[in-house]
What does this fold into?
Amino acid sequence: MNGYLMHKDSVVSRIENDIILNDNHRLPLMLKKGSDITPWICSRAVDRHRINSRLLKKVIRLTDTSDVSTVLKAHAATVTDNYWIKFDSENIEYKDILLNDDSLADVALFGTFESISNAKYIHCEYSKSPELTNIGSFEKCWRLKNNKWYMYKKESPQERFSEIFIYKLGTFFGYDMAQYEQDGDCVVTEDFTLSKKYDFESAASIVGDDEDYTLNYKKLYEISPNIAYDYLKIIFMDTLCMNMDRHTNNYGILRNSENGAIEKSAPNFDNNIALISRGYTSTQVSQNDLLITLWRELCENIDVDFQYPTLKKDDIIRIANSIEINVDKQYVVDFVYNRYLALTK
It folds into this structure.
């Protein structure tokens, strides 16, 4: 691959034979001079294990379905940042590759015979659909409304309730949370980069795949003590609501898209594999609870006075009852309140 890594209409680095040739403060955090750009490209690819992603590739007649070819079909552009790749053979600008086509949303989200039959046939060298770079293991899609992108994610009732409940609980605590609402059998959330005001960089760009709490905290602290403390809030919420699916691609930081400065943490998002998403067990907290053990080890390893928010059982009842999804809400109340007591005693 020969060309340029771009940010909007500015050149970030020359690429020759897949190698980044220039240092630049605007480089994605994963990259530096001398880096092979291939892993960065692959990190932007739609999950090949999603059934609907394979159907999507059939609809657009993608003959080479490798991650690299899939991402480059969209010039490596995504909804959540402003980076893209310009090849030597092209005389184009950012506006020419900007993602603006949500006609494949139903294919990506539902993958039904009807959605495939009704899909607009895209027979062109490059695609402006955001679905080729829509990462994650759940069936999902981006829809464009009033020039804003909204993520739709297909979930079970228990998963939808968990996602919405955790958003509302975190908001009650005063934490920065991605807002979730129900729409049929999906949850919906607005692109938290606010239509390209920010560039999202996942924690994977900083720590790779290492999910160790203490390592993550210390690496984030090197960037900003405030960002590191925001990470503690995310892990506290995970511990309180039994989120077993926190990985380095579903939390991170936001960079100012004008100057590249790291401004703040991304809001807490992606909480559907938590709470009651995998059914109902005991509301009693085990002495060997893994997440609580890991949280306590983290608190022992760092010199921070974490401020636990105040939570009463009536608060949990009110939040649970505000969500119009038929689940065992008494279980949710007891489960969360018991874990809160265990964490704060």
Notes: The two ends are 57 Å apart (CA to CA). The chain has 13 helices and eleven strands.
